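Consortium newsletter contribution from the modelling node. Members have asked for a concrete example of what our holo predictions look like. Here is one, prepared for the flavin-adenine dinucleotide complex that several groups have been discussing at recent meetings.
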Amino acid sequence: MTPSKVAIFWFRRDLRLFDNKGLYHALSQHDSVLPLFIFDDVILNELPANDHRVEYIHAVLEGMDKKLKELGSGLLVRKGEPWYVFNQILQEYAVEAVYANADHEPYGILRDKEVSGLLQQNGVLLHQFNDQFIMPPGSVLKPDGSPYTVFTHFSKKWKSMLSSNAFEHYPSENLLQKCCQQPAHTFKPLQFYGFVPSGIFSPTANLTPQVVANYQNTRDYPAIEATSRISVSLRFGTLSIRQVTRMAFEANETFLNELIWREFFASVLFHFPHVVHQSFRKEYDRIQWRNNEREFELWKQGMTGIPLVDAGMRQLLTTGYMHNRVRMVVASFLAKHLLIDWRWGEEWFAEKLFDFELSSNNGNWQWSAGTGTDAAPYFRIFNPLAQAVKFDPDAKYVQRWIPELGTPQYPTPIVDLNAARDRCLMAYKVALQA
Ligand SMILES: Cc1cc2nc3c(=O)[nH]c(=O)nc-3n(C[C@H](O)[C@H](O)[C@H](O)COP(=O)(O)OP(=O)(O)OC[C@H]3O[C@@H](n4cnc5c(N)ncnc54)[C@H](O)[C@@H]3O)c2cc1C
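And here is the predicted structure:
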């Protein structure tokens, strides 16, 4: 055991050294802070060896370790189930406190409860802070204390709750010399953790004043790079939500509303955890899905014969990213035209999306399938051809992803859109009448 006491800062969804609220509090309160990251086996065991998100996390951690090494410390990286890792660390170090930023998803809450219990048995407290959201799940409530289920009402309340310190900066970057590493560790390569490079790279953030200023005019056109591409950074916390939201607040209300959608879906998951497995409105679980596996496979591979759908699905396969407008179109097409259970699509997105986030993915899938909170009514079915005419008028986006478009190699549509629309309306109607 090392003689001197340390506080631990446990990085999870907040992989940055600057403006990190929990890290700032740890460094402010303690002279010696051991920065820790755990590659969590509970999560990793579900992933393929070439998972691009793990590769991304590893690269970000390497950068953080390098920066800390320049200041004389480094990042302690462990692999295992967090409870066991902490049990081990408690034997190795004289831990006086553990700090972390709160994780509000069901698994995170459970994991933290278990770790906190172990720490308490050893006389150590787990201090948690809200760093991931401006208004953390559970904080935006109706006057009677119940959660909002309609976005417009949620966002109105959210905006009314903004105080002058909502975007406060927590200068953890100025206190990093208090980080310690005893003994010194070498940073291990990706392969050490059982993973290999994927060849897929995170979309580059495009958060420029110009993108934010023009956002409402250009965000729906997938052929142009007119959205911020910050979803991966927000997912893993490489950007500070306070800095991003301040920028949105000062410059563009439409862009601000998108950030509030993220907080809304986190709130829905927090208050209604049944959405992980069931429709938000349980009567929608009576829908008789067709669940045709061949059609699902063609959808996944971008071979449905509907160009905008195929372009989006190929963009996802190749890059791990898909433009939001196209996400809505492919999701609606799967759930409504193909009548395939939205949970199948949700799972495919979870496997492929770089920015996969349980709450946003689930909330948007349920919105698209019409099973969610304030979802578009089920009879409003996106026509993917009309969407293409409107949002990809020069067909630049579809041509970029479907080089064989217009040749005999490109498949004919797997469904007649009109007949599939009628079939969907009938299936939803029957389910809701039952
Ligand atoms: C079926 C479906 C699944 C989705 N799954 C995810 C997911 O797993 N993870 C994820 O982060 N987003 C998800 N989204 C929301 C949205 O598509 C992405 O956040 C957005 O495309 C990311 O690109 P961007 O950063 O350029 O977004 P921008 O348009 O620049 O928006 C800025 C930020 O606002 C937030 N945001 C924007 N739109 C939404 C939205 N509809 N819901 C929640 N937050 C939003 C994101 O954090 C985003 O990075 C999904 C949307 C659909 C229709």
